[in-house]
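Here's what a typical entry looks like (GIY-YIG nuclease family protein):
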Amino acid sequence: MSIDRKAAITAYKERKTIAGVYVVRCAASGQAWVGQAPNLETIQNRIWFSLRQGSHTCRSLQAAWTTHGEAGLSFAECERLEDEESAYVRNALLKERLLHWRAELKAELI
């Protein structure tokens, strides 16, 4: 294994992930769904993948995708959390902020 490859792997493993709350919106229906993720940078790909497969666990979101397609939905970050040392503190804060944004946006939970 080359030095560059080892360095790249090490850098990947040590990268900081940004936790937070996100929203998926359907422009046509006005519906919104909020969720929380330990890594905001990868969550949209995960959601879109499961929607394309027809296997997303949130039935109303899957129905909106089926009706309006990928172009009908948008993804946005609501809030990024500061880096927390403790996973417990981060997870508790994520839950609290998720409920705040659910009420603020009148959205369903993903």
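The first strand starts at residue 20 and ends at 26.

More examples are in the samples folder.
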